[in-house]
């Protein structure tokens, strides 16, 4: 029999990138009595603050520090989760890093692609793989990966970022049928502009038209609704096939629209 005042234990949810921005807002939204959360990122102090707030709302929270660029650390993280927290029902991969660098300033920076892919693609996919095996064995679960509304719309200046996000998008779409056969749903959240520390260097601290982290979190959580496989803004769902059908003109147009969007968001005249 349940004790008075306690909710039934829920399935385990893992949130990466939980130390700030959209990830921290996700933890805040998910925190309620009975919720069981594993939150991870590199900064232990920031994770502790997020965990404290979630516990104050009645959630049970494990803090697991991990640098997704470190393959061994990712394997250790998955092992720790499985041993101490259990098999996740939901994995929300929100960790990521971004970069805007035009080609003219990229010639001497071949490392950009590796640095961004290490987090956005390889580290994220590595963690998903390690958790997917027991989830498949359990025959249930949902993986939500946060990519970007720009992931399928290549634009000048965003080469390394969109390549890493498009790589994750393509990898997830490729494993989705096999995962579905063993009962695990894979959903992709193509997030639009959100006012966080990630967007501030280019768009400013309070970009016009951007979602707040809480709105960004609500956007991502739509991917948890039954049968959802993609959550994406309408403009991105229209622009993505156009960019595929007319790659050269599409990238030029995306670059022009992107520059206008930056000026609009920064409130430049
Ligand atoms: N903000 C936007 O406009 C926007 C638009 C489209 C998509 N997105 C996507 O949304 C997600 C969240 O972004 P955000 O805006 O919330 O950015 P943010 O505030 O910079 O948060 C990024 C999160 O990722 C974690 N992270 C970064 N590098 C990591 C690493 N090597 N290992 C483990 N964790 C790492 C950070 O934690 P630590 O620093 O503690 O490690 C932090 O918790 C990202 O995947 C991003 O690409 C954002």
UniProtKB/TrEMBL annotation:
Pfam families: adh_short. Gene3D superfamilies: NAD(P)-binding Rossmann-like Domain. Keywords: Oxidoreductase. Residues 11-197 form the Ketoreductase domain. It comes from the Bacteria. SMART domains: PKS_KR (SM00822). Belongs to the short-chain dehydrogenases/reductases (SDR) family. This is Fatty acyl-CoA reductase. It comes from Brachybacterium phenoliresistens.
